[in-house]
Design a protein that fits this description.
- This is DUF1653 domain-containing protein.
- InterPro entries: DUF1653-like_dom (IPR023387), DUF1653-like_dom_sf (IPR037135).
- It comes from Acinetobacter rudis CIP 110305.
- The model has no long low-confidence stretch (mean pLDDT about 95).
- About 10% of the residues are buried.
- The protein has a single domain, classed as DUF1653-like domain (SH3 type barrels), CATH 2.30.30.
- The strands form two sheets. Strands 4-3-2-1-7 form a five-stranded antiparallel beta sheet. The protein has a two-stranded antiparallel ribbon with strand order 5-6.
- Helices cover about 5% and strands about 50% of the residues.
- The chain is mainly beta and about 80 residues long.
- A hairpin with a 4-residue loop joins strand 1 and strand 2.
Amino acid sequence: MPSTQLKSGIYRHYKGQLYQVFSVARHSETQEYHVVYQCLYGDYSIWIRPLSMFIETVQLEDGRSVARFQLEQQN
Protein backbone atom coordinates (compact mmCIF):
# COMPACT_ATOMS: atom_id res chain seq x y z
CA MET A 1 0.00 0.00 0.00
CA PRO A 2 1.51 3.38 -0.97
CA SER A 3 0.76 5.06 2.37
CA THR A 4 3.34 2.81 4.05
CA GLN A 5 6.03 4.09 1.68
CA LEU A 6 5.86 7.62 3.09
CA LYS A 7 6.53 8.29 6.75
CA SER A 8 4.93 11.17 8.61
CA GLY A 9 7.39 13.79 9.77
CA ILE A 10 9.23 16.88 8.67
CA TYR A 11 10.44 17.03 5.07
CA ARG A 12 12.69 19.52 3.35
CA HIS A 13 11.70 20.63 -0.15
CA TYR A 14 14.59 20.72 -2.59
CA LYS A 15 14.34 24.54 -2.61
CA GLY A 16 14.94 24.58 1.17
CA GLN A 17 11.61 25.10 2.95
CA LEU A 18 10.32 22.69 5.62
CA TYR A 19 6.97 20.89 5.61
CA GLN A 20 5.12 18.68 8.10
CA VAL A 21 3.65 15.58 6.46
CA PHE A 22 0.56 14.31 8.26
CA SER A 23 -0.73 11.44 6.18
CA VAL A 24 -1.44 9.94 2.79
CA ALA A 25 -5.08 10.22 1.71
CA ARG A 26 -6.99 8.72 -1.19
CA HIS A 27 -9.11 10.73 -3.61
CA SER A 28 -12.72 9.52 -3.47
CA GLU A 29 -13.31 9.73 -7.23
CA THR A 30 -9.97 8.83 -8.82
CA GLN A 31 -8.57 6.60 -6.03
CA GLU A 32 -5.25 8.46 -6.48
CA TYR A 33 -3.08 8.80 -3.37
CA HIS A 34 -2.25 12.31 -2.12
CA VAL A 35 0.07 13.59 0.60
CA VAL A 36 -1.48 15.89 3.22
CA TYR A 37 1.11 18.35 4.51
CA GLN A 38 1.60 21.78 6.07
CA CYS A 39 4.21 24.40 5.29
CA LEU A 40 6.25 25.33 8.35
CA TYR A 41 6.68 28.97 7.32
CA GLY A 42 4.55 31.91 6.19
CA ASP A 43 0.85 31.27 6.71
CA TYR A 44 1.35 27.60 7.75
CA SER A 45 -1.30 26.58 5.23
CA ILE A 46 -2.24 22.95 4.63
CA TRP A 47 -1.83 21.44 1.18
CA ILE A 48 -2.21 18.19 -0.74
CA ARG A 49 -0.07 16.92 -3.57
CA PRO A 50 -0.26 13.66 -5.52
CA LEU A 51 1.95 11.06 -3.84
CA SER A 52 3.63 10.29 -7.15
CA MET A 53 4.73 13.92 -7.44
CA PHE A 54 5.75 14.19 -3.77
CA ILE A 55 8.19 11.27 -4.00
CA GLU A 56 9.59 12.02 -7.46
CA THR A 57 13.01 13.40 -8.28
CA VAL A 58 13.53 16.73 -9.99
CA GLN A 59 16.37 17.81 -12.21
CA LEU A 60 18.22 20.95 -11.19
CA GLU A 61 19.61 23.50 -13.64
CA ASP A 62 23.10 22.08 -13.11
CA GLY A 63 21.87 18.66 -14.27
CA ARG A 64 21.75 16.94 -10.87
CA SER A 65 18.68 14.93 -9.91
CA VAL A 66 17.45 15.31 -6.33
CA ALA A 67 14.39 14.22 -4.36
CA ARG A 68 11.60 16.80 -4.44
CA PHE A 69 11.09 16.23 -0.68
CA GLN A 70 13.62 14.64 1.70
CA LEU A 71 12.70 13.31 5.15
CA GLU A 72 14.49 15.34 7.85
CA GLN A 73 12.77 14.09 11.02
CA GLN A 74 10.37 11.20 11.39
CA ASN A 75 7.42 11.45 13.80
